[in-house]
Amino acid sequence: MYQTFNQGHNRRVTLAGTMRTRLFRELATSEAYELGARDVNNYLLVEQQPSCAL
């Protein structure tokens, strides 16, 4: 889950919070641009996944 913070009239967006995967993190950035953001500060963290034991 993440939060979006609007930074004034210059269409700057800050993303903060945690995401399950790196792909979701990048998709959030892409979505912000698609919705009209000109600048995106992505401070989203990716949750650590448990390592698989062999």
Main β-sheet description: 3 strands, mixed
Distance between the termini: 31 Å
Oligomer: single chain
Going by helix content, strand content and strand pairing, the class is alpha+beta
Approximate shape = elongated
Number of helices: 1
Strand content: 35-45%
Jot down its keywords:
54 residues; 3 strands; alpha+beta; 1 helix; three-stranded mixed β-sheet
The gist of it:
By secondary structure, the protein is of the alpha+beta class. The chain has one helix at residues 22-34; strands at residues 2-6, 12-19, 39-46. The chain starts with a strand and ends in an 8-residue tail after the last strand.
Describe what this molecule looks like in 3D.
The protein is 24% helix and 39% strand. It contains one helix and three strands; from the N terminus they run E-E-H-E. The chain has one helix spanning 22-34, and strands at residues 2-6, 12-19, 39-46. Strands 1-2-3 form a three-stranded mixed sheet, covered by helices on one side. The chain is elongated, with a radius of gyration of 13 Å. The N and C termini lie far apart (31 Å). Keywords: Plasmid.
SSE map:
Elements: E1 2-6, E2 12-19, H1 22-34, E3 39-46
Parallel strand pairs: 2-3
Antiparallel strand pairs: 1-2
